[in-house]
Amino acid sequence: MLNNYTGFDVIGDIHGHASALENLLKKMGYAKRDGVWRHPERLAVFVGDYVDRGCENIRTCRIVMDMQATGAARAIMGNHDFNCLAFHTKVLGKSDEYLRPHTEKNLGQTEKTRAEFNKHPDDKRAVLKWMKTLPLWLELTGLRVVHAFWSPKDQATLKRYLAEDNSIIWEDFPKLAKGEEAKSKVGNARSHLLSGPEHALPDGISITDAERNKRTEVRLKWWNFDKLPMSLRELADVPPKDLHKIPDETISSLDCLNLPEARPDTDSRPVIFGHYWMKPDELFLGPRHVCVDASVAKGGKLAAYRFSGESELSPDNLVFSCK
């Protein structure tokens, strides 16, 4: 038994697709009792990114909130949840300035969530209050869960700003939100955990991300850090159409990536995470790493990994929604 459960069902980025979530829960043997989805033996674990892109953002949050409140689930924070809080939190002493600026890009990304919030202000308040309580990572029996990047060094950097359960102390939230703009150690640590480590491209080179935004930095396949040396092209997490733009230079150590504090992960416990917009057949990354973001918000499916205490992960334990 894993803390009175036979296992954990780690569920990927939902992004406002509540119907897909209910479909997946039902497929895994969860049933709705007294208005809450529950499993008789297993615990659901959510990796974050509950809002944006889909049209059922409040309903998604309500499902997870109710499961968590009744002990049927655990949930952590994703970058969209952090950004949602920052978008709706004013800078202290500034009546018209928010911790996440209301730029055209940010307004577009949050459009569907904001439309629901505007119609249902009480739900908005409840969701934002709940998001403030979400931890940045979980350590469960035999398993680690984070939204984007498992990094003990970055976790240690943030510890002074976190409560015992790894949720952000609200008074310190602005330090983590504004820190990214200043490229501070604290802001970078938060960004690493919730958005993953990145590497700057040479001048004049850019790629287009999944949301069609121009980017001059590339996400890195950190789960391969223990396989260095390898080429930057092999480490870069970019669409195939942009792979030729990535320099084929050899990366011999993490210092070459301007990540001097990062180190290869020597912990034997597996890590399950979301965030990376993968296809269903790409999620299994090896015996210690599985991504559960199967791109439900871009026509893919909602994914879950059914963990039952195994020391090595298996692709056979991945489950997908029907839509």
Structure, described:
- The chain is an alpha/beta fold and 323 residues long.
- It is 28% helix and 18% strand.
- Strands 5-4-1-17-18 form a five-stranded mixed sheet.
- Helix 2 links the parallel strand 4 (42-46) and strand 5 (73-75).
> Which structural category fits the helices and strands?
alpha/beta
Order of helices and strands: EHEEEHEHHHHEEHHHEEEEEHEEEEEE
Strand content: 15-25%
Largest sheet: 5 strands, mixed
The multimeric state of the shown protein is single chain
Provide the residue-averaged pLDDT: 90
Helix coverage percent: 25-40%
Number of strands: 18
Count every helix, treating DSSP H or I runs of 4 or more residues as helices. 10
Described by the principal axes of the CA atoms, the overall outline is globular
* Major sheet: arrangement of strands: 5-4-1-17-18
Cα end-to-end separation:
32 Å
**What is the CA-atom radius of gyration, in angstroms?**
19 Å
Report low-confidence residues grouped into runs of 5 or more: none
Briefly summarize what is shown.
By secondary structure, the protein is an alpha/beta fold.
Describe how the helices and strands are arranged.
Blueprint: E1 7-11, H1 18-27, E2 31-33, E3 36-38, E4 42-46, H2 57-69, E5 73-75, H3 79-87, H4 104-109, H5 111-119, H6 121-131, E6 137-140, E7 143-146, H7 152-158, H8 173-182, H9 185-195, E8 198-200, E9 207-208, E10 214-215, E11 217-220, E12 230-231, H10 232-235, E13 236-237, E14 250-251, E15 271-273, E16 289-291, E17 303-307, E18 318-320
Parallel strand pairs: 1-4, 4-5, 7-15, 15-16
Antiparallel strand pairs: 1-17, 2-3, 6-7, 8-11, 9-10, 11-13, 12-14, 17-18
Helix pairs in contact: 2-6, 5-6, 7-9, 8-9
